[in-house]
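Same chain as my last thread, 314 residues:
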Amino acid sequence: MLYNNIRQRNHPPVLWLHLTFYLCIVLEISGIARNIYDILSAGVIDVRGYALIAALAYIEDNLTEDIKLSDVAEACYYSTTGIQRIFTTVFGYSLKEYVIKRRLSKAARELTMGASSVTEIAFRYTYGSLEAFSRAFSRVYNETPSNYRRMSRNTELFPPLTVEYEEEGMVLMKKVDISAFYDYLQSIRGSYMLCVDIVGFEKINLDYGYAAGDAILAEVAKRIERHLLSEMMCIRIGGDEFLVLTGYENHDDARGLADRIISENGNDVDVQGHTIALSVRIAVTELPDKTDLFRQLIEKFDHAVEVKRELGKR
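reply #2:
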């Protein structure tokens, strides 16, 4: 997979580097090989970026299959320890955790669609029993699959990640892939969006653990969803950041929606035996009407959230 992707991007030096590395392994001169490989790859291209792209693509294509770390490594021509280390360094959690979250996120979407039974969805995403699926789902969403189906909308809590590529080289920058929403974004250009982030989310992760943090994300999604109209959309686009596409062309309407969501600030959430006071910040800004819609959207979102955070410190 990686071999084909690199060939399509016309980067023969990378292929040569990979072949050199594997030749050195075959010759069993790994100590020297490592030095040679590092020297040759320096200043040519960061092959780690291509490995991540290949790993993410392989995972996304095989979420309903049994995914082994060795299979992911083989798909991106990397060692198992190497791809695991790179993945954790860039994205902040293990490859296994990412697979679990992507499967549960896809399962959650199917639950809201209602076409399949909970049991069918459990087996589709490789869970051996309904009980195992329910336990895993409840740990992340703080809700049983059946309750989630009755109460929730189609908010993707753990959307696919991607690595940004630029022609001059690889930029190892994590971001979510929102390309699936391209048509909808095009249709509401010029309307207002809500830029939501969780107050003190990093401290919640540190004090109570990442599992509690995941439950907080699910709770924030539910709070937002309670106030949305059917045609609106909520997308998680960062660690503690949610984008709400309102479709409103009037700023006051969007601000009113933000205020209704904020009215739940301070309400306690019970998570894994802990009571956590949960609050969010919300900035309101206009959806960019630009050719490069995705980049402009993320840049505008980041700016709006940063301004709101700075105001909160005063």
